[in-house]
UniProtKB/TrEMBL annotation:
It comes from Vreelandella halophila. Keywords: Hydrolase, Magnesium, Metal-binding, Nucleotide metabolism, Nucleotide-binding. This is dITP/XTP pyrophosphatase. One of its GO terms (cellular component) is cytosol. It comes from the Bacteria. Pyrophosphatase that catalyzes the hydrolysis of nucleoside triphosphates to their monophosphate derivatives, with a high preference for the non-canonical purine nucleotides XTP (xanthosine triphosphate), dITP (deoxyinosine triphosphate) and ITP. Seems to function as a house-cleaning enzyme that removes non-canonical purine nucleotides from the nucleotide pool, thus preventing their incorporation into DNA/RNA and avoiding chromosomal lesions. The active site is at 72 (proton acceptor). The gene is rdgB. Substrate binds at residues 11-16, 73, 157-160, 180, 185-186. GO terms for molecular function: dITP diphosphatase activity; ITP diphosphatase activity; metal ion binding; nucleotide binding; ribonucleoside triphosphate phosphatase activity; XTP diphosphatase activity.
């Protein structure tokens, strides 16, 4: 099915790219970040993770001529009715700024007690074999946790310093990269993709 051994990774987020390089390492597929192939970032105009991931994958596949893997992801906070959700990257405005986003989230939850600070990360992956692929492969992973009262840890990216992982008793920014790759929304979505690709990857 996906016999092509060179994919474009339809993301400009260095944190995501590092995680994908780790996750894809055993797959026997060469992956190039889109900017290394001269692919810019399209506007994310949709209101769902699925549609934004389709936009990113189709754009990268069209320009590069390679199969494209895109990730649209974000943090859904229960006390905020699922916000920032699809708008996670732009929560505090554009251009995207992780520190400003984290500060805005802490402010928004200032009066929310610990028991109500539940949240989850979502990751939707789209794999398109070509820009005209009529059946893109769509996978979804979730990662439940809670929002801390202050940032802790220097690893990861985005909202990781505020995302408490219940099983580990620390924030996602304190987890070893290997552990985050196993348990995160992205790791889970990638496990689904791997399963569905079956024998077509190494
Ligand atoms: O594991 C994660 N750990 C912490 N934060 C995360 C994670 N996964 C997504 N996030 C946050 C970052 C960003 O605020 C938004 C994704 O937005 P999203 O548009 O999908 O990515 P992006 O604009 O950073 O890069 P790109 O679109 O080029 O892939 O959710
Ligand atoms: Mg984006």
């Amino acid at each position: 099915m996906t016999s092509d051994r060179h994919w474009v990774l339809a993301s400009n987020n260095a944190g995501k790219i590092a995680e994908f390089n780790r996750l894809l390492q055993p797959w026997g597929i060469e992956v190039s970040a889109q900017k290394d192939l001269g692919v810019d970032s399209p506007e994310e105009t949709a209101t769902t993770f699925v549609e934004n991931a389709l936009i990113k994958a189709r754009h990268a596949a069209r320009i590069s001529g390679l199969p494209a893997l895109a990730d649209d992801s974000g943090l859904a906070v229960d006390a905020l009715g699922g916000a920032p959700g699809v708008y996670s990257a732009r929560y505090a405005g554009e251009p995207a700024d992780d520190d400003a986003n984290n500060r805005k989230l802490l402010d928004a939850l200032a009066n929310v007690p610990d028991a109500k600070r539940t949240a989850r990360f979502h990751c939707v992956l789209v794999l398109m074999r070509s820009a005209e692929d009529p059946i893109p492969m769509i996978c979804h992973g979730q990662w439940p946790g809670r929002i801390a009262r202050e940032t802790t840890g220097g690893g990861g990216f985005g909202y990781d310093p505020l995302f408490l992982v219940p099983e580990d008793g620390c924030t996602a920014a304190e987890l070893p990269a290997q552990r985050k790759a196993q348990v995160s929304h992205r790791g889970r979505a990638m496990a689904e993709l791997r399963e569905r690709l079956g024998d077509s990857v190494a």
